[in-house]
Amino acid sequence: MAEKKKDRNRTIDPAALEVLAKTEGNGVESCYDRYLNMQPQCNYGNTGICCTICIQGPCRITKKASKGICGATAYTIVARNLIRHVVGGASAHSDHGLHTTLVLKEIAEGHEGDYEITDSDKLKRVAERMEIATEGRSDREILKDLVDLALQEFSRIDGTYSKWIEKTVVPDRVEKFMDCNIMPYSIHRTVSESMAQTHMGMDADPVNLVFQALKAALCDYMGMHIATDLSDILFGTPTPVVSEANMGVLEENMVNIALHGHNPVLSEMVVKAARSMTDEAKEAGAEGIKCMGICCTGNEVLMRQNVPVLTNFLSQELAIMTGAVDAMVVDVQCIMPGIQAVAECYHTKIITTMTNAKIPSSYYVDFDEAHAFEKAQEIVRVAIDAFKERDPNKVSIPQFKNKVVAGFSLESMQDILGAINPEAPIKVVTDAVDAGELAGVALFAGCNNLKVMHDESHFVIAKELAKNNVLLVSTGCAAGTFAKLGLLNSDAVDKYAGDGLKAFLNRLNEANKDKMAEKMPLIFHMGSCVDNTRCYDFTNALAKQWNVDVPKVPFVASAPEAMSEKAVSIGSWCVTLGIPVHVGVVPPIPGSPLVDGIALQIAQDVYGGYFMWEEDPQEAAKKLMAALNERSWKLRVHRMAQEKYETDSISATW
Ligand code: BF8
Ligand code: SF4
Q1: Residue 114 clears pLDDT 50, i.e. is over it
Q2: Sign of the dihedral defined by the CA atoms of residues 90, 96, 100, 106, in that order
Q3: Is the separation of the CB atoms in 281 and 296 below 8 Å?
Q4: Are 599 and 58 in contact (CB under 8 A)?
Q5: Which of 400, 410, 475, 630 has minimal Cβ neighbours within 10 Å of its Cβ?
Q6: Which atom of ligand 1 lies nearest, measured to the CA of 475?
Q7: What is the pLDDT of residue 500?
Q8: Which residues contact 464 (CB under 8 A, 6 or more apart)?
Q9: CA 587 from centre of chain
Q10: 150 lines ligand 1 (CB under 6 A)
Q11: Ligand 1 atom with minimal separation from the 262 CA
Q12: C-alpha to C-alpha distance for 462 and 525, rounded to whole angstroms
């Protein structure tokens, strides 16, 4: 173990390994070096028993000091720290959702600028779901009501509850949230409630604190669902696209622009501007301009604009170290401050764009939605100018890339399944599970984390589940791993799928052969991290088709390399909504066996979902399969009981 941590090559991505090898000892530092410098990491922080909530601290729980100076015990400290992680995640996703809502508000009020409603059908579908009248009304009138409702989701304080939750989850769940008093009024109210509740000298009860964390996690769900729904209205609901992934997408003779961050409000406009500025690039001596994505903004523009994937979170600095990135344009979240120091060793310009995410010494463009296209052109021009400064002696592009088939919104999945059963598309999946052809569905979500080998656990667990006939969907940097390593195409089906999964995917291929040029991939890429709500909508659709609550659905989630506060909140709402969640990097909880027990056991009693901490990918695959098999088996028993007693309803207990 100690040896392993001295090794800088903590990745299985061949492109990342090549960059690490070629830059060894050249003095350019990346997170792979900083991780080693950081060892050993503090075990108090690792297990969650360090409190800095007031400035009498830090207080650490030790054998000698079993309580903080104020008397807070380990369970209070761990639970308070946990809530603050969840609140951080919920705030990040919700701020993203609010940003998108405010762009649509301008459109609703007649100040379109450079944005427009791209998907009027999605607008109507979302409005109808939210019980907003659509009949005989213009898109702008409908949008105005939808934006008003979305804004209330952020700010409501009148004692009424979240509509986005009420209208998107199974009714049994809503009842459960009301019973447990975790149904939120609104996002901003819950965030401030939670920060108040965790102030020094406030709540010391770990159960009460954990329940508040779950309420905050539901706000994360609200913010994400709003972000996904409204981004589809603004930029279009994704449909299947073909592209490529990994550092081999960089082009020696083109202006290479890396789009990094999260919100398509910026990246869509940069892609549009870049596509209109080929002539300027040619004047600068390039053959053209190529945009490519990192992290979730990369997922957004892959899904809607088939922009190739450059890399995922952990290797963001390594992309610059190829010497071929002319500009890295960033907006918000998961942008390592370290990219600026790396960029200064090359010609690369780091272009920051948001008032709340600046990096000292970067090139700042004050991105203003009212002049979005003009600002995007300014950004592309900086990249073209930087191209002229590129030093060919420093350029070394790893020649690794894989074909990617992506763009699977729930709508496009339903369309594909509908080629077999147009009346009930989701029944194609439930029938396959009932027949034992599929073992269930697994979502791979989440980040990269240097505490484990970059990309490895994603790869190992996915192959294992595919062999065992699990239908796989993915989002975020997990999808980035699969894109880079060649699992998002049909060759991977031939290599890794079990017979049942192969037969299922072949049926989809056969039924869709006239409308889809590409065969189904091994894993269906459903988008960015906010699009985990698409995956939940899929679970929800399965639950409705089976006529059960989510805790009975053979659907599991795995975050083998969870890293961010956002990952903590996503995992928490998945559990609350009834999904078993594997996490491959243990969050700072085990310092309190009580809080750990709530996450691993008590959550299941109350919500049906639960966490599984497991770093070993083979063991994790076994645990995920066991969770799926248990649910599929129970479902079959219930189905038999249903048929025997000729009833439609199944008990809500699990
Ligand atoms: O929101 S998966 S490292 S990029 S947090 Fe960040 Fe994690 Fe990547 Fe996207 Ni999600
Ligand atoms: Fe220490 Fe209590 Fe202050 Fe935390 S809140 S730092 S435990 S005194």
Answers
A1: yes
A2: positive
A3: no
A4: no
A5: 630
A6: 2
A7: 98
A8: 617, 618, 621, 625
A9: 17
A10: no
A11: 9
A12: 13
Average pLDDT, the chain: 96
- Please tell me what DSSP assigns to residue 454: B
Instruction: Report the alpha-carbon distance of residue 457 to residue 453 in Å, rounded.
Output: 7
Distance 202 CA to ligand 1 centre (A): 32
Instruction: Give the chain's domains with CATH numbers.
Output: 2-60 (no CATH), 74-235 (1.20.1270.30), 247-394 (3.40.50.2030), 403-645 (3.40.50.2030)
560 CB within 6 A, ligand 1: no
Q: Per residue in 344-381, pLDDT tens?
A: 999 999 999 999 999 999 999 999 999 999 999 999 99
Tell which one of 267, 296, 316, 317 to mutate to probe ligand 1, the residue whose CB is within 8 A of the most ligand atoms: 296
Grade residue 5 by pLDDT with cuts at 50, 70 and 90: low
Which percentage of the chain shows pLDDT scores above 70? Answer: 98
- 572: pLDDT strictly greater than 80: yes
Three-class SS state of 426: coil
Helix, strand or coil for residue 357?
Answer: strand
242-251 mean pLDDT: 98
Q: CA 371 → CA 113, 221, 232, 510, distances in Å?
A: 7, 31, 21, 46
- Indicate which ligand has the atom closest to the C-alpha of 448: 1
Q: What is the dihedral of CA 67, 69, 72, 74, to 10 degrees?
A: -40
| CA distances (Å), origin 70, targets 79, 194, 576 | 16, 20, 31
User: How far is the C-alpha of 426 from the C-alpha of 407, rounded, in Å?
Assistant: 18
Q: Which helix (H) or strand (E) holds 484?
A: helix 476-484
How high is the pLDDT of residue 648? 62
Burial grade of 138 (CB within 10 A; 0-12, 13-18, 19 or more)? exposed
pTM above threshold 0.85 = yes
- Give which of 219, 574, 231, 146 is closest to 409, Cα–Cα: 231
Answer whether residue 3 shows pLDDT above 50: no
pLDDT at 649: 55
- Ligand at minimal distance from the CA of 480 is 1
Handedness of CA 532, 537, 538, 543 (dihedral sign): positive
Rounded to the nearest angstrom, the distance between the alpha carbon of 480 and the centre of ligand 1 is 10
For residue 285, the one-letter residue type is G
pLDDT higher than 60, residue 652: no
| Closest Cα to atom 6 of ligand 2 | 57
**Using CA atoms, how far apart are residues 526 and 532, in angstroms rounded to an integer?**
8
Q: Whose CA is nearest to atom 4 of ligand 2?
A: 51
Q: Residues 631, 634, 639, 645: what is their CA dihedral angle, to the nearest 10 degrees? A: -150
Dihedral sign, Cα of residue 367, residue 369, residue 375, residue 377? positive
